[in-house]
Structures are given as structure tokens and as C-alpha cells.
Automatic annotation (TrEMBL):
One family name in Pfam for this protein: DUF4147
The organism's place on the tree of life at top rank: Bacteria
Full protein name: Glycerate 2-kinase
Record domain MOFRL: where: 316-424
InterPro entries: GK-like_C_sf (IPR037035), GK_N_sf (IPR038614), MOFRL (IPR007835), MOFRL_assoc_dom (IPR025286), MOFRL_protein (IPR039760)
Amino acid sequence: MMNDGSNGGVRETLSTLFEAAHRTAHPSVCLPAHLPPVPKGGRIIVIGAGKGSAAMAVAAEAHYIATGQENKISGLISTRHGFGLPTGIIKILEAGHPVPDANSIVGAERAIALAKSAGPNDLVLCLLSGGASAIWAAPVQGVSFEAKQALTKQLLKSGAPISEMNCVRKHLSEVKGGKLAAAVYPARLLTLAISDVPGDNPDEIGSGPTVADRSTLADARAVLEKWKITPSPEIAKALADPANETLKAGDPRLANSTYEIVAAPRASIEAAATIARELGYRVVSLGDDLEGEARDVARAHAEMALEAKRKHEKVAIMSGGELTVTVRGDGSGGPNQEYALGLALALDGATGIAGLAGDTDGIDGGGGNAGDPAGALVFPDTLKRAKAANLNAAKFLENNDSTGFFRPLGDLILCGPTQTNVNDFRVILIDP
């Protein structure tokens, strides 16, 4: 998964911890126990979206084939470009992420049509994972796809946390904010979700297409104002139209809808923590819901690591959540790589400290391609090797070019799509 080179022992340990984190949340591991039986006299209609949804479809197919019920299931899953997998029954459609594309509209509209086709004896099974907010994009009436796409790009560059981004996006969608559940009603609906959001709130996972929404149109307008985003006239009009309000708790169209989280960041961090403890580290978990500017969080974590070193403690500092990057330069990278670059600068070559930051879906920002890095590693000699290669770490950080910094060092995490998504995983190992 990671390039060979110096720091072999700690590199291998960091790799092992990262792999444990994302493998724990793989659909083949976490999904089968939650799959429902086929309803008597009916069928299961599978719909869904997200970075892990193709693997969820594969796991679901295998389950129903093993139980001799494959002729009772059908459906369509949307996933990110490059994340598709071969299936025999459930169709797979690849769409844009983090910026939606034409297939994002096609997938959302076909999901709505399948939802509406459910009869009284049928069960709609929604397989949902992080990334669905972009992968399913059916704009509300009066909003063009181009306007919504442009707004998504603005939000991504603003530094807004994912919860606030999704607040805006769900109020401009015909599928998010409980509206997919409304399309299923009165048929029965079961959502099985892999969480990628801080706090595991169902209305934030994939922008909550099948649950009540706590946010309002007023909240969405406030987000744009907070991040100094001036919306186009059609976006502004849509966010002022009460017809675009999302479903709220108590809405009768949610009466036949059930929701289960089958994997969450907390379990992935604990899987890695178990291994670290076996290796003699005292684990300090900062939680699975961290948010904030990547470089700022990195500086705070570096100080914690340096303090542990001063105390001669063997410690593993772990955290999850989803950090953000306020884009000011024209470089390439993502929040995990930028965190790693910020960490390297803050540690300033301190011996006995190494770290990793990676997105558990296998891709960290960048160009949105399946071959983009998942994150990066930091070692005591990172800055020394960079200087020898004529790489100025501070200038690369200023230009938001963390990929450009770590690639020549061989310290990018290059694993490709992991077929799940439980958000970011970060670990700093201190071994004085």
C-alpha cells in the first residue's frame, strides 16, 4: 500500500493501523448481519449511493444468492467514478464526486423512480454511505445542474465543514432531506448506512435522504452568509421557497421508514487502537468527530505529541472526523495530506515521532480520481529529506500543494478505493 523506503518498521506499523481501520468497516464484514429477509409475497428493491455502496451491493447480492432468494431482488446503486464493482443482479452506476456530474442526476432520478415503484408487499432497501451527497444530485425545480455544481465547488473551497455543506445541498435537492423516503411511502423502507460524519447523525450521512432533517432553509442561507458565498439568483430563490423545505420529525411519510448504522468511525479507531495496545502503546483517542482547519488541528496534535515525548511516554494519539482546507493556493492535495504536512512542520524533525493521516475511502481530495492518494505519512526525517530534495515545506503548505510535497518523498498513501468510508483516520506514534 505504501512506498518502500526508510523508516521501515514504523512505516509498517502505521500501514497496519490504517488498514485495520478501513477493513473493519468493509461491507463484507459489517453488512450481512443487518440484511433483512425478503418480505412474504413481495420483493426487495435495492437503491443506494456512496463511496462504499458498490461493495454493499456485492455483499447484499452474495447474501441473497446464498439464501436462494436472488430472484426476489433487483435495483440500482450509484457510486463514485472508479469505485464500481462487478455485480450480477444489482446495477451499478458511477457518478461524480466531490463535484456532481450528469450521472449524479441520472442516478438520483432513477432511484426516485424505483422508490415510487414499490408495492404494498415490497421492501425498499437503501444502502447508503458517505459521498452520497454529491453522487446523488437531483436539483429542485428552478435550479440548474450547472448552478448547483458551481455552488458545490464554492463550498468545497470555502473551508465549510461537511455538516454545513450538506445543510445547503439538501435544501436544493429532490432526493435529500427525507425526500427519498417520501417517494417510497407508503411502502416500507429500510436504510442500512455506513457513517462518515462526526456524531453519526442520520440526517447528515449522505444528506439524510431517508430521515427527518433537523436543519432548515434559514440554516442553509446562514451557512452561505457565514462563508461569504454569494449565491446565484436561482439558488437564492430556491433557498427562500418554503416548497423546498426538507421533511421534519413527525412527518407521516416517514412512518414506514427504519434506519440502522452498520459501521461507524468509532469502531474503526478502536480496531486500530487494539493493535497499538498490543504493540505496547498507550492509546489516547481524541474522538471520531474532530472538525477544523487541517493545518491548525495538526499543530495542536503536534504539541500533544511533543509533550508525550518530553514525558518519555510510548503513546499512540488517534482521531477521526473530517477536517477541512481553506483553499488559497493552486496546488493539489486534501485535508489528510495537508494535516500531514502541517504536522511535519510543527514537529520540526523531532525524533521518535511518526504519523499518518488517511481517508478511509482511499482517496483524499485531489482531483477526484480513483488513483488519488488516500493521505500521507510523516517521519522524523521528513523535513531533512525534503530539504535534500529542494522542497520547501512551508511554501508547499502555503500553496495547498501537499501532494506535490509528499510524492517525491515516497510518503503518500496510495491504496486506491477501499470500498468503504468511515471518514478520516489519523494516528501519531510517539516512542522515545
